[in-house]
Write a structure and sequence with these properties.
It is a single chain. The longest helix has 31 residues, at 12-42. 71% of the residues lie in helices and 0% in strands. The two termini are 33 Å apart. The protein is an all-alpha fold.
Length: 154
């Protein structure tokens, strides 16, 4: 009788797809953050005209991040690096360092999570951070790294 290896759902491809999905959800949470923040700013009298360039820049960043997530799901090594460095390092640092500095200065958790923008903002920000952390955790699995290719789909 021949024994076969047990089948597992935790293959490089499935983990890679889950990581890409987590990054896509992180981008959607980032879009929701932007919508909440812009809506809150526009509700205030004298909304700044400099808002449009910021929204356009965020839109570009979101489009690039979604494109990278799509390519990660298809096994592109460059997308793995782009997401690790772009969202996993720079993106997380841009969210966490100001919060840590605010807490170190004695701000409340609500203020540090920018709860003054909107009561919904801290919830969306927390989801954004959690989705990025999930994506990074999944994509650092050795099976994911082993399933990547230089340029072709795997």
């Amino acid at each position: 009788m021949t024994e076969t290896a047990p089948q597992t759902l935790l293959t490089g491809r499935s983990l890679r797809t889950a990581a890409a999905g987590a990054f896509a959800l992180a981008v959607l949470a980032g879009i929701a953050e932007a919508v909440v923040a812009v809506t809150s700013l526009l509700a205030q009298p004298g909304a700044d005209d400099g808002l449009l360039p910021q929204v356009l820049l965020r839109g570009l960043v979101f489009a690039v991040a979604l494109t990278c997530a799509w390519h990660l799901a298809r096994g592109r090594r460059w997308a793995w690096w782009a997401l690790l460095l772009g969202l996993g390092v720079v993106g997380l640092a841009s969210m966490l360092l100001p919060m840590a500095a605010a807490l170190a200065d004695g701000a409340s958790w609500s203020t540090a999570f920018e709860g003054d923008v909107s009561p919904l903002f801290p919830v969306v920000r927390a989801l954004h951070i959690l989705f990025v952390l999930a994506g990074v955790t999944l994509m650092l699995h050795p099976a994911v790294r082993g399933s990547l290719s230089g340029g072709r789909e795997r």
